[in-house]
Amino acid sequence: MTTFDDRERGFEAKFAHDEDIAFRIAARRNKLLGQWAAAKMALTPEETDAYAKAVVQADFEEAGDEDVIRKLMGDLLAANVEIDEATVRQALAEQTVEARRQLMESK
Q1: Is residue 10 in a domain?
Q2: Which of 34, 57, 69, 97 has the fewest Cβ atoms within 10 Å of its own Cβ atom?
């Protein structure tokens, strides 16, 4: 039984590690998305920092990326930035790659 218990603990540890990495990538991606959107809205550096944090917080509203996309679309359109949802989704994909790269480089 010990071999199976050890194997189970190993799988649980790997699952926990993978979930932690996924969370870190999503949080970093959302921060980068906030900075991207802030640049489009011509925010000051202080406003950019606050906005990036707000985008990270928006991701906790519901599972998936729709809450972040809704926030970005609403804020960009409110700031009179001409943008469509496809562009925001493309930025989300690009920032996901960048966040993963940054996280892997930091290790």
Answers
A1: no
A2: 97
